[in-house]
Design brief:
The complex is a heterodimer of chains A (258) and B (354). With 258 residues, chain A is α/β, with parallel strands linked by helices. Chain A is 34% helix and 22% strand. Chain A starts with a strand and ends in a 13-residue tail after the last helix. The chains are: A alpha/beta (258), B alpha/beta (354).
């Protein structure tokens, strides 16, 4: 029923460790109604490593010979997925054992809903709790309808994330997937686009997804510390860009200019 | 002669279930109250089983229960004392709640049978004069809701016969067919405690500021049941509770209860059918911990199983059997008393004739 998409673009010791943790969390799921699709680059070491890796759950390896950024990898996975729902699992994150069962319970209860977000537990590198994300839709009077994310609330309050998102595959492809040309705020832009197009986004009120904040080498760590480091001005630029780009389904070329 | 005739007619009326049974309730002015529903349920069961029962109220302008109980309750006959045309016979029965000792005093000289309805032991002395007992006003029998309360009453009033009628938990309380939401239903005896608990929870646990607490006051029964079933937890603080309808309604709705054990512990309360504490200062921390457990699916299945088992005992069938058994006993006992009195009058008359 759910195809869990897990993109990997390179092979490092950190990624090997993280993959173990992510896959272990899949093995511990209390139900088995899911498959895993690992989308990976043609990197020879990576291909060999994944081919010999014991996933322990039904897994497809999907070779990506195109753009290797996170968004493009996910878009490729969604474009070939035959499951009704896809889910996004980042390699440095982990699911709690009831992630799939809670998702299925909610899909069955609310088949009309297009997208489900978990309440994400953000941790530091040592696994210590930092905060929750996506939980605020359950606060009284924050959104128009309690539990549901809406466009107006998103514009006023940006702190939502797509990690652990579950979405109807058809809807994901129909609205154009994630935009690789948007740095930093591509998840935010995606949620804005979804809600702008009247797709329903519901937050499952369960702590089923653990997200490591600013793991060394992660995309967001690189935005803050690595070669692709963003200045505060550029970070603000991408947030503003998200608010302008969500009207468009296509991945338009955007460049940051001072 | 007339006296004997009246008594014989009364005995006949008791036999034919024609005697009036009046169950006194206070006017809650449209506010939901489990104790009032219990009184109505007794009257309804009696009437469904050929008895002749009514609710009795003080004032003609009685607010009724239609604003919070289902429409079917509107059919329950209601009479008011204020109307002034209330005539009672020796076979009639008046049931007065424990809180209304002043009413017991007012009707002490009425020739009818009298029973106390004691749902909350804590109110027994609320309006009783010092030194007075129910027997002082001719009330020698009481009905209560639990065996613990029966024990409590018997310790106080040795002469009073006490019967237990176990309340039923309405069929309107069902489990939700949708997943529960991060809503915590809260019910406290004093509304100030509700507000105190909510406000201090948000201050002590700001990471859970997004949780909704729902004060379960002033809702219709339907709204109440709906709100309860979509909640993930419920909180119950009521030190003087006599029975504990709210936690049982929670259990029937599949909602785990975090509760402060009342001063008189209800017999249904076990170690495993809820999260209980005797220390009210622990409630906040328990709410936070259990809520976190719910968010992480860590509430043991045993709690849900125990809840189901506990509440399965409070059915309408059990309640109906209890009501009929108790009121039949009262009726038989009254009949025996009246027959005895008739015999005595007859003996007296024979002696006078001799």
């Amino acid at each position: 029923m759910i195809n869990i998409l897990l993109p990997i673009h390179e092979l490092t010791n950190d990624i090997k460790d993280n993959l173990d943790t992510a896959v272990e969390s899949l093995k511990k799921q209390t139900v088995t109604e899911f498959t895993l699709t690992v989308i990976h680059t043609p990197n020879k070491d990576l291909v060999e490593y994944l081919t010999n890796y014991d996933f322990g759950v039904p897994t497809n390896l999907l070779l990506n010979e195109g753009q290797s950024d996170f968004c493009s990898q996910i878009n490729l996975g969604a474009s070939v997925s035959e499951s009704k729902y896809i889910s996004i699992l980042e390699v440095d994150d982990e699911l709690t054992p009831t992630y799939v069962s809670n998702t299925i319970e909610h899909i069955n209860a609310y088949p009309e809903i297009d997208t489900f977000l978990p309440i994400v537990v953000d941790t530091d590198n040592k696994g210590e709790f930092i905060s929750f994300t996506n939980e605020s839709v359950w606060a009284m009077n924050l959104t128009e309808d309690i539990g549901y994310l809406d466009n107006e609330s998103l514009k006023a309050y940006e702190n939502y994330q797509t990690s652990g998102l579950v979405i109807k595959t058809e809807v994901f492809n129909e609205i154009g997937g994630l935009k690789s040309n948007i740095k930093l705020s591509f998840g935010y832009e995606f949620l804005l686009r979804l809600t702008h197009q009247s797709k329903t986004v519901y937050v499952i009120p369960k702590l089923t997804y653990r997200h490591t904040n600013f793991r060394k080498g992660s995309l967001f760590w690189l935005y803050k510390n690595g070669n692709s480091k963003l200045s505060p001005q550029e970070a603000a630029f991408w947030l503003e860009t998200a608010k302008k780009e969500y009207f468009f389904s296509d991945n338009r070329e955007i460049n940051y200019e001072v | 002669m007339d006296k004997i005739k009246i008594l014989q007619e009364s005995i006949e009326r008791l036999d034919k279930l024609q005697s009036n049974i009046y169950v006194f309730v206070q006017d809650t002015k449209g506010n939901a109250k489990a104790s009032i529903k219990y009184a109505y349920d007794i009257v309804r069961v009696l009437n469904e089983n050929e008895y002749n029962a009514s609710i009795i109220v003080e004032e003609k302008a009685y607010g009724g229960v239609s604003s919070w109980l289902p429409l079917s309750y509107e059919d329950t006959p209601v009479v008011s004392i204020e109307e002034g045309n209330l005539e009672v016979r020796p076979d009639d029965l008046i049931v007065i709640p424990e809180l209304f000792a002043h009413v017991m005093e007012q009707i002490a000289d009425m020739p009818c049978n009298k029973v106390v309805l004691c749902q909350s032991y804590d109110y027994i002395f609320e309006t009783l004069k010092p030194g007075a007992t129910w027997s002082s006003f001719g009330f020698n029998r009481a009905i209560t809701t639990t065996f613990e309360q029966k024990q409590f009453i018997n310790d106080l009033f040795k002469k009073t016969d006490v019967n237990v009628i176990t309340p039923s938990i309405s069929e309107v309380f069902t489990k939700s067919d949708k997943p529960q939401k991060p809503i915590i239903a809260i019910h406290t005896r004093d509304q100030r405690d509700t507000m105190k608990l909510i406000k201090s929870f948000y201050v002590k646990y700001p990471q859970y500021k997004w949780v909704t607490f729902r004060d379960m006051r002033n809702l219709t029964q339907e709204e109440f049941a709906m709100s309860l079933r979509e909640s993930c937890l419920s909180v119950w603080v009521d030190d003087i509770s006599g029975f504990g309808t709210f936690p049982l309604e929670s259990m029937k709705s599949g909602v785990p209860v975090i509760g402060k054990v009342p001063n008189v512990k209800p017999e249904w309360l076990t170690e495993d059918n809820g999260i209980w504490t005797t220390d009210s200062n622990q409630i906040l921390d328990l709410v936070a911990a259990v809520f976190r457990g719910w968010l992480e699916d860590r509430i043991p299945n045993e709690v849900y199983t125990e809840m189901e088992e506990t509440v399965s005992k409070f059915t309408l069938d059990t309640f109906t059997n209890d009501v009929l058994s108790v009121f039949n006993t009262i009726r038989e006992e009254r009949k025996t008393q009246l027959e005895f009195t008739v015999d005595k009058f007859n003996e007296l008359e024979t002696e006078q004739n001799d």
